[in-house]
């Protein structure tokens, strides 16, 4: 027989038990979580580098560009035959949609949804599937960015590491945020941007407990990216004089303008999706049709191909006419909406930066005619870039730090901060969603951020209810009822019919009250039935249960298995529900304060 004790302590097999020690370290020490975050940052940097390189190889193979060229910047010199590439990519995407519809019907969960509803649990397999879809979409020229692939796979690895370490729910959510932070920091060579991307968009809150691991992951990701020699995304805005009070007026106006246009773009994506669903074109063919339309647009405006990363660099430093900018804004917006709405996978982060820079330069032309200003068109481009991105993606501080880290100019940060706040407030008050949360809303999910509301859904009636309920047949005589349920034995009894279906609840004190007992023991229990149509279901969460208590004005309700069979499975009181709800709220508060 195998001696498992001796086998465990052999030099090679002992390595298999190292994760148990890691679990103890990470679960009991903040330093352990920081070390795990550093590992996630390292992995995320290689993830970003690998995805970027694969995308570049695809661009070289499909569009015959040079190894150092960006697709959207080099698109003006592409052969006309390359413009059918988006349609070819659509054919591949249609094939993937057909395969997934048959063998993988579960929707892919992204980091925001995972942290909001699932305690940070992400499927690594699903993450690889989304990365493949994003690479095909971007690699064949669809007007989408790669940030969805970056954050999805980096967060997927972080979640997998968290499950291996058996992290608590709050630590798991933090580690997923570390993956996203490192991915964005690596993609933009901007650690502050990556860290606040995680705080504002993935974790949903800033706290002392999350500060160290998220920042460490973002810094590690940036340092590894720099050591790999990846290209940076610096923008030279020249010399900016001291910011005056008068400079804030056009900056705020530009922020409001970007907010309005951002809402239009998000609505446009939704309109394309609805149109494709209602059309006669099968779902597996819609990406091909969308790719063909993008290819036609690229004949007249080649910069719409890809994410717009290269075109952003090219156009920010180039003097463009009013009509050329308007044409680029329209074509890029339409191409991005058609790409995503027709079934391609990707994000709008890079596209929103490109569109925002164009809107900023357009605003500089318009405002320069009305009122001369000391701000250059490049400065307006940076302000517009951040304002447009915050309208679509969200995260005011994320986009403010992005402008700071891309330009290295502190005075511009005040103008950007004012503009992004104006843009964010207008979108929140008039539209109420970012692009990601808007799509959740269309799916029927009530998610407006990555705040952890999953614990409310997990705190179900089934977990809180009592199973030792006392029932009585509604046809039982009063004398028999008195024998079975003497005064003081319980507060309430659940009444059922002859086949065990719930019919109502009987209060024991009312049965023994003088007004009912003076009927010579001939009273009918049906006269005392209450809450006949008020009950709970096991899958209801605490919030829904409290709402049901309020509507019925009851201190306790029966729990039935379903609305068809109406079999009684338990009893839940309002006081116990509120106590458990308050305990969970207090635990969440302590987690944010770093006490847990």
From TrEMBL:
It comes from Paenochrobactrum glaciei. Residues 528-587 form the CBS domain. SUPFAM superfamilies: CBS-domain pair, Clc chloride channel. Keywords: CBS domain, Chloride, Chloride channel, Ion channel, Ion transport, Membrane, Transmembrane, Transmembrane helix, Transport. Gene3D superfamilies: CBS-domain, Clc chloride channel. It is found in: Membrane. The chain crosses the membrane at residues 31-58, 78-101, 175-199, 205-228, 248-268, 280-300, 320-342, 348-371, 378-404, 410-427. It is a multi-pass membrane protein. It comes from the Bacteria. The keyword DNA-binding does not apply. This is Chloride channel protein.
């Amino acid at each position: 027989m195998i001696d498992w004790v001796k086998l465990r302590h052999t030099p090679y097999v002992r390595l298999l038990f190292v994760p148990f020690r890691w679990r103890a370290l990470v679960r009991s020490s903040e330093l352990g979580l920081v070390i795990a975050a550093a590992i996630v940052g390292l992995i995320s940097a290689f993830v970003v580098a690998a995805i970027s390189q694969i995308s570049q190889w695809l661009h070289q193979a499909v569009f015959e560009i040079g190894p150092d060229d960006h697709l959207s910047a080099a698109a003006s010199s592409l052969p006309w035959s390359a413009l059918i590439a988006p349609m070819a990519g659509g054919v591949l995407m249609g094939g993937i949609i057909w395969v997934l519809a048959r063998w993988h019907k579960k929707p892919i969960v992204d980091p925001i949804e995972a942290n909001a509803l699932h305690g940070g649990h992400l499927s690594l397999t699903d993450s690889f599937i989304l990365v493949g879809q994003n690479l095909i979409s971007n690699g064949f020229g669809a007007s989408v960015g790669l940030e969805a692939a970056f954050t999805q796979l980096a967060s997927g690895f972080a979640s997998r590491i968290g499950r291996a370490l058996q992290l608590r729910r709050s630590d798991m959510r933090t580690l997923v945020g570390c993956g996203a932070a490192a991915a964005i920091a690596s993609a933009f060579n901007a650690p502050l941007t990556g860290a606040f991307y995680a705080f504002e968009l993935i974790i949903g809150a800033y706290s002392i407990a999350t500060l160290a691991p998220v920042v460490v992951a973002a810094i590690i990701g940036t340092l590894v990216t720099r050591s790999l020699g990846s290209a940076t995304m610096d923008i030279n805005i020249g010399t900016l004089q001291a910011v005056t009070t008068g400079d804030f007026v056009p900056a705020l106006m530009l922020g409001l303008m970007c907010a309005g246009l951002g809402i239009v773009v998000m609505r446009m994506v939704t309109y394309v999706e609805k149109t494709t669903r209602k059309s006669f074109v099968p779902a597996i063919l819609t990406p091909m049709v969308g790719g063909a339309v993008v290819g036609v647009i690229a004949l007249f405006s080649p910069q719409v191909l890809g994410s717009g990363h290269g075109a952003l660099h090219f156009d920010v430093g180039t003097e463009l006419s009013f009509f050329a900018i308007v044409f680029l804004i329209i074509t890029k917006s339409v191409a991005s909406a058609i790409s995503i709405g027709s079934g391609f996978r990707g994000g709008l982060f890079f596209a929103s930066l490109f569109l925002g820079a164009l809107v900023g330069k357009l605003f500089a032309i318009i405002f320069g005619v009305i009122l001369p200003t000391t701000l250059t068109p490049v400065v307006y481009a940076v302000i517009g870039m951040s304002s447009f991105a915050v309208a679509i993606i969200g995260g005011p501080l994320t986009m403010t730090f992005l402008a700071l880290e891309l330009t290295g100019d502190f005075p511009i940060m005040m103008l950007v901060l004012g503009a992004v706040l104006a843009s964010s407030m207008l979108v929140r008050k008039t539209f109420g969603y970012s692009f990601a949360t808007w799509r959740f809303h269309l799916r029927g999910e009530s998610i407006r951020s990555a705040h952890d509301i999953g614990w409310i859904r997990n705190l179900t009636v089934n977990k809180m209810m009592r199973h030792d309920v006392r029932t009585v047949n509604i046809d039982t005589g009063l004398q028999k009822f008195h024998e079975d349920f003497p005064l003081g034995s319980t507060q309430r009894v659940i009444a059922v019919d002859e086949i065990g279906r719930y019919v109502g609840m009987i209060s024991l004190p009312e049965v023994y009250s003088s007004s009912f007992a003076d009927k010579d023991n001939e009273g009918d229990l049906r006269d005392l039935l209450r809450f006949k149509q008020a009950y709970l279901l096991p899958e209801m969460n605490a919030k829904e249960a409290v709402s049901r208590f309020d509507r019925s004005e009851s201190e306790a309700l029966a729990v039935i298995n379903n609305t068809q069979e109406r079999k009684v499975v338990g009893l839940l009181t309002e006081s116990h529900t509120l106590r458990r709800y308050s305990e969970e709220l207090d635990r969440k508060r302590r987690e944010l304060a770093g006490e847990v």
